[in-house]
């Protein structure tokens, strides 16, 4: 299996929420923050053939970046084989019990009360400012007119 650029981007974003992930069989990726106050979910193009856990998602992604076009082989029970040409790397699964994973039940959110668009440059500035001031969450105070 090859991971699309979109899936790699989603996984990089998920690593910012929780550095570990429990991937379930299928095309849905989900994560939850350690504090359990942020939940993210995405549908990806790939169909993962099995459940597996990654303890250090950034390390896993950095390992994938060492390859130009890696293929992931999930046939072994204990590890993923990352293949490219003659190179093979075994990336061992983590114990799912040590991963903070989102609950299995679906979360039904209320209907949309507010919709907005945020330009990527504004979001990048916001994320940079939050990092400078070491702020883990963002909030906007609404002013009444």
Keywords, separated by commas or semicolons:
145 residues, alpha+beta, Proliferating Cell Nuclear Antigen, three-stranded antiparallel beta sheet, two-stranded antiparallel sheet, 3 helices, 26% strand, globular
Instruction: Give the uncertain stretches in residue-range form.
Output: none
Q: What structural class is derived from the secondary structure elements?
A: alpha+beta
- The secondary-structure element order is HEEEEHEEEH
Q: How many helices does DSSP assign?
A: 3
What percent of residues adopt helix (DSSP H or I)?
10-25%
What's the arrangement of strands in the largest beta sheet? 5-6-7
Number of strands: 7
CATH fold type: Proliferating Cell Nuclear Antigen
Gap between N and C termini: 54 Å
pLDDT average, as an integer? 89
Number of domains: 1
The gross shape turns out to be globular
CATH architecture: Box
Main β-sheet description: 3 strands, antiparallel
Estimate the strand proportion: 25-35%
CATH C-level class is Alpha Beta
What can be said about this structure in brief?
The chain is α+β, with helices and mostly antiparallel strands and 145 residues long. The protein is 24% helix and 26% strand. It is built from three helices and seven strands, in the order H-E-E-E-E-H-E-E-E-H.
Overview of this structure, please?
By secondary structure, the chain is of the alpha+beta class. The chain has one domain: Proliferating Cell Nuclear Antigen. It has 3 helices and 7 strands. The protein has helices at 5-17, 57-65, 120-132; strands at residues 21-23, 26-32, 39-48, 52-54, 71-73, 79-84, 87-92. Strands 5-6-7 form a 3-stranded antiparallel β-sheet, with no helix packed on it. The longest helix has 13 residues, at 5-17. 11% of the residues are buried.
């Amino acid at each position: 299996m090859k991971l699309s650029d979109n899936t790699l981007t989603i996984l990089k974003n998920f690593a910012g929420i929780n550095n570990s992930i429990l991937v379930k069989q299928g095309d849905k990726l989900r994560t939850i923050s350690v504090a359990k106050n942020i939940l993210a979910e995405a549908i990806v193009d790939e169909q993962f053939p099995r459940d597996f856990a990654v303890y250090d998602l950034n390390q896993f992604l950095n390992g994938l970046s060492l390859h130009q076009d890696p293929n992931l082989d999930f046939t072994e029970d204990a590890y993923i084989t990352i293949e490219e040409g003659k190179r093979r790397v075994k990336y061992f699964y983590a114990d799912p019990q040590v991963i903070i994973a989102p609950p299995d039940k679906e979360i039904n959110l209320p209907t949309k009360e507010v919709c907005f668009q945020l330009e990527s440059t504004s979001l990048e500035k916001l994320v940079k400012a939050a990092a400078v001031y070491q702020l883990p969450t963002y909030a906007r105070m609404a002013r009444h007119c």
